[in-house]
Amino acid sequence: MPEQSSFQVDDGGKKKSLDKWLLGGLALIIAALLITTIALAVLYGQEVQKDHNTTPQIADGTTPQPVPVTTPECSSAACAEAAERLKKAMNTNVNPCDDFYEFACGRFNETEPIPEDRGRWGVFDILRRELSTTLHALLDVPQPDGTALNATEKMQKHFHSCLNETALNDQSNLELLRNHITEIFPEFATFPWTDPASIPTIGQSLAAVSQARRYGSSMGLFSNAIASDHESPRQNIIGFYAASLGLERSLYFNSTDPRYVAYQKYITDMFQLFALRVAPAPLPEGAASTFAAQVIAQEKILAEAALSPEEIRANVSIQYNKMSLRQFATTYTSKIGWDTQQLVEYFSGAWQNPDINAVLNESTVVNVAQTRYWNVMTSSLAAFESSDITATANNRRLFANYMVWQILRGYVGRLGDEFRNISRTFSAVLSGATTPPPRWESCVNSVTNEFPEAVGRLYVERNFHKDTKQKLQTMVDYIFDAFKTMVVGSHWMSHVTRIRALEKAENFAVLIGYDDYIVDDSEKLNQEHQELVISSSYLNNGNIANRSGNQKFEGAPNCSRHLATSSITGPPVVNAFNAPLSIQSPFPAAISRSHPSSAVGVSSDSGTLAPSEWSYGA
């Protein structure tokens, strides 16, 4: 008979004894785990307390100290006006605990209806219109005579050329456009290229891309600009981006959207009118609508290749792909016949800077923010040339037409009512505005965007308290000290993270109001605009502005390679910015200006915007 297991006893005595041993062992294990847990908790608490008691120091060994703050009584006219404006927007019939936004802003839409020439309206829009009115008064003065004009007088003359709608509607203005297109694209002389033998090759159309870049145009395909190097934020770098297309990315995938439909009609009507008024010969019947459909089909491919907002939000580093200019040419532009030398000529022709050869060569480091886009775009163009003669001819014609369309697109605002009315119809669908803004306002915005320093000089001289900049700097210093103190006490961050945050704060450049030279050094400002020969032609003045912008805002910064003291915006701007990649936070004069009756001469808006903008890049 087999031997019985010790678990199989009749009286159960041995089993009870074993149960006691098991229970005892389990109790010992639980006790050991409990003691271990308590020990780990004590050690963790000691580490946390140690971290809390450790004040992070900046690299130089100093520690930010809290700054005592006193709150002055709000008794000035400016403060009273601001309080009244806030009270006017409040809906006090709502319990703030139920809906604070409605409580704070619920009556804004009642007191500030959206103007007919706007698709949206907010506090910043109100401030911008006030700024436009101020600049209008500064620019709309009796037109200066003669050619020996200083920088601000040239801006006033430029503004008058924009207001002159009689000249814009004159046939001579269209002749200027025709001559300009022919300068950029000599093959335009045989437009609309109905004879296959007259169609420009892809290479000839690409030559127009280089010529157009001299006037600041990327021709809707070759988007590039000077930007900050993410690894070395104070250094400039050439960045390659996705194209700025006619519609926002998502709209290309919904052909029933009214904006999609309006865009196709916009291209059709504009191209048809252009062929009638400007081109050497009109288009064949139906060619404009066919071209519009082709444009949207090609732009849809490019839109799909561009990074979506969701992709960028998920991984912002996806936009950071550094390589040499030679690698960029090998990877992308070699597919369309552009080597490194042609890329150097492309930029040097646009920037016209004598120091360009010292910083631009095959070893120059660039950043390709949109690798997928550049691969698809260059591959698509390369595929336009094939063994199929008919397909190649059609592709060449499409690309040549697209080059002409991109040039025209950039000049609509400088043409007469026929062209601008088509543009207004399309803009109304995009924005919801029922009427265009007044011409003077469009001209103010145009001149200010093209020559921010010269217009800024006019603004600062007459609308900025002399000592406001220093007072604002003092206020920002206080806020910055408080910001750093807050970082020291933010124990939800690790010790290492707080140290890095403080070091970043020490390197942050806060640019206040305006560059000093535009007020203190008239000679330098005038020299910067010395080559500008402003005429009565708004179209020609725009060409001059574009050439000047290339040299000042791209060529010079790229050749200096340094951003430390450069502002990224002009003085007459209602906004503040955080530029974390360049470690900058500009506060332009227009957002920093106080109410005229303010005793301190500093806008309280800046005190609100400063920590807000810094928190974005923290």
List keywords for this structure.
618 residues; mainly alpha; Neutral endopeptidase, domain 2; four-stranded mixed β-sheet; 27 helices; disordered N terminus; membrane
CATH architecture of one domain: Orthogonal Bundle
Arrangement of strands in the largest sheet: 1-2-4-3
Number of helices: 27
**From the alpha-carbon coordinates, what is the Rg to the nearest angstrom?**
32 Å
Unreliable runs: 1-23, 594-608
Main beta-sheet annotation: 4 strands, mixed
Shape label: globular
Q: Tell me the CATH superfamily of one domain.
A: Neutral endopeptidase , domain2
* CATH T-level topology of one domain: Neutral endopeptidase, domain 2
Quick check: average pLDDT?
A: 81
Structural class: mainly alpha
Q: Would you state the CATH class of one domain?
A: Mainly Alpha
Strand content: under 5%
- Helicity, as a percent range: 55-70%
Straight-line N-to-C gap: 81 Å
| Tally of strands | 6
GO molecular function: metalloendopeptidase activity
Keywords: Membrane, Transmembrane, Transmembrane helix
Organism: Hypsibius exemplaris
Family: Belongs to the peptidase M13 family.
